[in-house]
Automatic annotation (TrEMBL):
This is acetate--CoA ligase. It is an enzyme of class 6 (ligase). InterPro entries: ACAS_N, AMP-dep_synth/lig_dom, ANL_N_sf. The lineage of its organism: Eukaryota, Viridiplantae, Chlorophyta, Pyramimonadophyceae, Pyramimonadales. Residues 148-237 form the AMP-dependent synthetase/ligase domain. Belongs to the ATP-dependent AMP-binding enzyme family. Residues 80-141 form the Acetyl-coenzyme A synthetase N-terminal domain. GO terms for molecular function: acetate-CoA ligase activity. SUPFAM superfamilies: Acetyl-CoA synthetase-like. GO terms for biological process: acetyl-CoA biosynthetic process. PANTHER family: ACETYL-COENZYME A SYNTHETASE, ACETYL-COENZYME A SYNTHETASE 1. Pfam families: ACAS_N, AMP-binding. Its EC number is 6.2.1.1.
Amino acid sequence: MHPAVVQTAISTRKAPKLAASSGFLNKGSLTFPSVKINVRRVRVGSARQGHKVIAASAPETWMAPDDFKSAALVSSREQYQEMYDRSINDPGGFWGDIAEEFFWETKWDPENVVKSNFNMDDGKVEATWFAGGKTNIAYNCLDRHVENGKGDDIAFYWEGNAIGEDSTLTFSQLKDEVCKTANYLKSVGVKKGDRVIIYMPMLNELPIAMLACARLGAIHSVVFGGFSAEALAQRISGSLSGTRPLRHPSRWPPFTLLRLASLLYCYDLERRFSPHTRS
């Protein structure tokens, strides 16, 4: 749905009328320190290839359907408040119960679900969660759902910028792609504890690469695909040694990484020998 196109004339002496050609505005008024803007009900419209055009007067209140409410994890405001209060008063018990829903190869120490210090006078500022526990995020995101009979359920809906450019991935398909990517990373030497920079647009391959890193125990860092080579070089350098850049082969030509390598080298030289950065 396109954002509302609003035409109005604002004056501090007279409350203006506001009209919108699309989008939704509730009946009523918006009040600002020196201006009161009257708002009237308008019709909402949406048009997209493959879908019907919708044009209807929007109601004052939307009530969730009963089937939706029955499947919700939090069914009422009172339940939410109860959960919130427990998360503040008993964080270990609250998060421990939630963590029980996941797969754990080794369980954590139940007495130390969370241990934190935020007072510098008392030592190092840090927070430790589930000390002693051992699991794999990729397994929890994928394998356990497939093993529980949800392999054919949709895991990802992807929609591109162009109309009609979209796709879906089931949990089984996603698991297969993640395993292929993880095996490739392993074949080029990526191992547990390594740092991987992921530089690509918002494609299905992005979460696939992230989950592949998690499957190997590698640490990933996603860099926005619109950043320049210089900005990317700084982020790779900032992640210290042992970093491997990962790009999408069909979207980023090889010379990009070659240029990146030279930029990274120059950046390191400047940082090492500049009188402003020398320690």
